[in-house]
Structure formats: structure tokens, C-alpha cells
Amino acid sequence: MVAVSTEAVREKRVTLNVDLLEVADLLERVPRACVAFAGEEGPRVEPVTVVCNGDGRYFVGLPSSTANRLGVHTEVVLLVDDGVQFFDLRAVYVRGVVEPPNGMTVLADGFFWFEVEPTRTAAWDYARMREVDDES
């Protein structure tokens, strides 16, 4: 007879995920940002200007020449990232739906503005890669 243990085996995995607050400086000083979405002609990626006022609201500005490609209520992914070398790579990922901003008509001239209402956020920092308990 073989004895079988009923104790759960704790497995480890490697993660580079961090709390959004740990990379908040990326949202204060946006190095690079783009928004990805499914347009009429297929997948699109457009560079954007980002304004985040620290309360979980994300405003993206597209040049008026490209803003007509992004419709209201469109699902988007906003990516703000920094770094070139492997261990310098950090990013904030926001998945959500774009809406016209409430109560804000002009944030900067020459841009058409949307507010991204987040449905999911994530952040990562390659310099913080570490082993954690697998909770799955």
C-alpha cells in the first residue's frame, strides 16, 4: 500500500507584477504611451498623450487627425511604458472602454480627448522579478 499525502504542495512561480502605486511615477511623467483597439480596418495602435490625476481616471488625447478612428464605447488597451534595457522595463497596462470626458472640454489644444474607464489594470517592473507562492 502506498501512502498519499493530502497536504497541498506549495509551488513557486516567478513574477514581475507590482502594485500600481509602485510605478505611479510613470503616470506622472509619461515616457511613452499608446492605445490599441480594433478599428474598422483591423487592429490599430496609436500613440497618445496621457493625463492621469491620481484618482484612477485616465485621459488619453489623440491628434485630431487620428481621433476619428476611435469611437465612443470602444474597448481599448492603454500601455504606458519606460525603459530600453531588460531590467529597466516597467509598464502600466489599462484595459477599458473609452468615453467622452465628463466636465472637461479642453485638456490640450489639437487633441481629441477620451476617458478610459478601466475594467482591468496591471503593472510590472522587470527589476523587481522575484519568486512567489503560486496561488492558483
From TrEMBL:
Source taxon at top rank: Bacteria
SUPFAM superfamilies (UniProt xref): FMN-binding split barrel
This protein's name: Pyridoxamine 5'-phosphate oxidase
Organism of provenance: Mycobacterium intermedium
Classification of source organism: Bacteria, Bacillati, Actinomycetota, Actinomycetes, Mycobacteriales
